[in-house]
TrEMBL record:
<protein>
    <submittedName>
        <fullName>Replication factor C subunit 3/5</fullName>
    </submittedName>
</protein>
<dbReference type="GO" id="GO:0003677">
    <property type="term" value="F:DNA binding"/>
</dbReference>
<dbReference type="GO" id="GO:0005663">
    <property type="term" value="C:DNA replication factor C complex"/>
</dbReference>
<dbReference type="Pfam" id="PF22534">
    <property type="entry name" value="RFC_C"/>
</dbReference>
<dbReference type="GO" id="GO:0005634">
    <property type="term" value="C:nucleus"/>
</dbReference>
<keyword id="KW-0539">Nucleus</keyword>
<dbReference type="InterPro" id="IPR050238">
    <property type="entry name" value="DNA_Rep/Repair_Clamp_Loader"/>
</dbReference>
<comment type="similarity">
    <text>Belongs to the activator 1 small subunits family.</text>
</comment>
<dbReference type="GO" id="GO:0003689">
    <property type="term" value="F:DNA clamp loader activity"/>
</dbReference>
<dbReference type="Pfam" id="PF21960">
    <property type="entry name" value="RCF1-5-like_lid"/>
</dbReference>
<keyword id="KW-0235">DNA replication</keyword>
<dbReference type="GO" id="GO:0006281">
    <property type="term" value="P:DNA repair"/>
</dbReference>
<dbReference type="Pfam" id="PF13177">
    <property type="entry name" value="DNA_pol3_delta2"/>
</dbReference>
<dbReference type="GO" id="GO:0006271">
    <property type="term" value="P:DNA strand elongation involved in DNA replication"/>
</dbReference>
<dbReference type="InterPro" id="IPR027417">
    <property type="entry name" value="P-loop_NTPase"/>
</dbReference>
<dbReference type="InterPro" id="IPR008921">
    <property type="entry name" value="DNA_pol3_clamp-load_cplx_C"/>
</dbReference>
Length: 356
C-alpha cells in the first residue's frame, strides 16, 4: 500500500492542519440531525477527501471504513446501459457520476432515489449514537453536465430528510448556483509549505526514515502545494535513501511538457505544430488530464517569456481551458492553444526586429 493511503488520517482529531475546518466538522458530527448537505471545494491534494472520510467516521463510527468496490449498471429511458464503479459501506456510497458522460443525469437521480428510499438499518441497530440518515458522496461534481446539476438540485430538495449529500470538487465556479446555495460550503485551502514539511517529517518518522528538514522543504516547494503529490515524492525518494543533498525527482510527463515549451518557443512552423500535436496526444493517451497538460505548459512557457507577452498567454490559456471543459475533443483545444501561442510569439519577434 502506498504511504499516501497507509498513513492517511482516519479521525478528525488526527488531522494535521486547518484546525478551524476540523472544529466545524466536529460540531456537525455532534449534531447530525441538523447537518445540511455539504460542499467541499479546494485545490487538488489539499485534503478534501480525507476530511470527508474523517467526517463519515465521526458520523457512523468504524463501520464507515469497511469499504467495498461495486459496479452498478443503470438503464436510461432510451434502454441504454451505463456501468459505474462506486465505493460503498453500510452507511454511505461514493461515486463519480461524471464517468457516465452524457447519461450522468439518470445516474444521479437513480442513486440518490435508491439510497434515500432505504432506511439506514445499520445505524438503527448500532449500540453507539450514529446518524440515522445515509450519505451520498459525489466526487468531481464539477464534471456534471448542466442537466445533471439541475436534476441534482431537484433531488436534493426531495430527499433532504432521509439522505445527506456531500459534494466534492476542485472548482466551485463550474457548479451552478442553485446547487451551491443548497449546501454548506467548506473551502479546503492548499496547505502551506511549512505544513507540508511537518506532515512529511511525521510520515518519514512513522516509516522509520530520517528526513532532513532541507529535503522536506525542497519537496514542499516542488509539489505545487499538493500534499498527496508531496508524500508520493517522499516515498519515491526513500527508495534511494534520504540524504541531505538529494534532488527532488521530476516526473517524466513534466519533463516532456517542459521540452514541448522549449520546442514551440524555439520554432514556430506548421511542422512544429504537427509534431507538438503528436506529443500532446501521447500525453492524453497516458492519462494526463488535459487541464493539467495546459496548466503545466503555461507555467513552463511563462518561465522565460517577456512580461509584455505574459498577460496575453494567460488570457488565451484561460479561454482554451474553458473550451476544454465545454467540448469533448481535448486535443483540438490543446493544439489550438499551441497555435495561438506560436502566432503571438512570432508576432512579438517580428515586431521586435522591426524596431531595429
Amino acid at each position: 500500500m502506498l504511504w499516501v493511503d497507509e498513513y492517511r488520517p482516519t479521525k478528525l482529531e488526527d488531522l494535521s492542519y486547518h484546525s478551524d475546518i476540523t472544529d466545524r466538522l466536529q460540531a456537525l458530527a455532534q449534531n447530525p440531525d441538523s447537518m445540511p448537505h455539504l460542499f467541499f471545494y479546494g485545490p487538488s491534494g489539499a485534503g478534501k477527501k480525507t476530511r470527508i472520510n474523517c467526517l463519515l467516521e465521526a458520523l457512523y463510527g468504524p463501520g464507515a471504513r469497511k469499504l467495498k468496490l461495486d459496479q452498478r449498471t443503470f438503464t436510461t429511458p432510451t434502454n441504454k446501459t451505463v456501468q459505474i464503479n462506486m465505493v460503498t459501506s453500510s452507511y454511505h456510497i461514493e461515486i463519480s457520476p461524471g464517468d457516465a458522460g452524457l447519461n450522468d443525469r439518470f445516474v444521479v437521480q437513480d442513486i440518490i432515489k435508491e439510497i434515500a428510499s432505504n432506511q439506514n438499518i445499520s445505524a438503527m441497530n448500532s449500540t453507539r449514537k450514529t446518524a440515522l440518515f445515509k450519505t451520498v458522496v459525489l466526487v468531481e461534481v464539477d464534471r456534471l453536465s448542466r442537466q445533471a446539476q439541475a436534476a441534482l438540485r431537484r433531488t436534493m430538495e426531495k430527499y433532504a430528510k432521509t439522505c445527506r449529500l456531500i459534494l466534492c470538487c476542485d472548482s466551485m465556479s463550474k457548479v451552478m448556483e442553485p446547487v451551491r446555495s443548497r449546501c454548506l460550503g467548506i473551502r479546503v485551502p492548499a496547505p502551506t509549505h511549512i505544513e507540508i514539511s511537518n506532515v512529511l517529517i511525521k510520515t518519514a518518522r512513522r516509516t522509520e526514515h530520517t528526513l532532513p528538514e532541507d529535503v522536506a522543504s525542497n519537496i514542499a516547494r516542488s509539489c505545487d502545494r499538493n500534499l498527496r503529490r508531496a508524500i508520493l515524492m517522499l516515498e519515491a525518494m526513500s527508495t534511494q535513501g534520504l540524504t541531505k543533498d538529494q534532488p527532488v525527482p521530476v516526473t517524466d510527463w513534466e519533463l516532456y511538457i517542459r521540452q514541448i515549451a522549449i520546442d514551440i518557443t524555439k520554432e514556430q512552423s506548421p511542422q512544429r505544430l504537427a509534431a507538438t500535436r503528436e506529443k500532446m496526444y501521447e500525453l492524453l493517451v497516458n492519462c494526463i488530464p488535459p487541464t493539467i497538460v495546459l496548466k503545466t505548459l503555461v507555467r513552463e512557457l511563462l518561465r522565460n517569456l517577456d512580461d509584455t507577452l505574459k498577460p496575453s498567454v494567460v488570457e488565451w490559456a484561460a479561454f482554451y481551458e474553458h473550451r476544454i471543459a465545454m467540448g469533448s475533443k481535448e486535443i483540438f483545444h490543446l493544439e489550438a492553444f499551441v497555435a495561438k501561442y506560436m502566432a503571438l510569439y512570432k508576432k512579438y519577434l517580428n515586431d521586435l526586429f522591426d524596431d531595429f
